């Protein structure tokens, strides 16, 4: 599975961005699609998960501000990010998790700054 992340950019604090992760094949049977992020000098952290059944999970730091969703018809997963904060600045990666395999996209930079 090839994953193409897009939608990053520079936004002011309080602003919004929507990230997209387009897969090269159907995501219908993929166990979970995950967004991670890695800020400079920090370890990569899990941001949000959506399972094949639609169950979602979020890191505490983004609950209430970020929403993960999937469009199986478009083989795409989204991360809607609202009320962005400077501490959300990071490279965001999408990840497809299956029983015995895991695939990663190339990352998209999100910078939150005034």
């Amino acid at each position: 599975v090839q994953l193409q992340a897009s939608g990053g950019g520079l936004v002011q604090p309080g602003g919004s961005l929507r990230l997209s992760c387009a897969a090269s094949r159907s995501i219908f049977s993929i166990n979970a699609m995950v967004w991670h992020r890695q800020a400079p000098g920090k370890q990569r952290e899990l941001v949000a998960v959506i399972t094949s059944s639609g169950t979602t999970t979020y890191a505490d730091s983004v609950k209430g501000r970020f929403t993960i969703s999937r469009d199986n018809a478009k083989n795409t997963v989204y991360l809607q990010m609202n009320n962005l904060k400077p501490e959300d600045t990071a490279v965001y990666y999408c990840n497809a998790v299956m029983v015995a395999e895991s695939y990663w996209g190339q990352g998209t930079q999100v910078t939150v700054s005034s």
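The mean pLDDT is 95. The longest strand covers residues 90-97.
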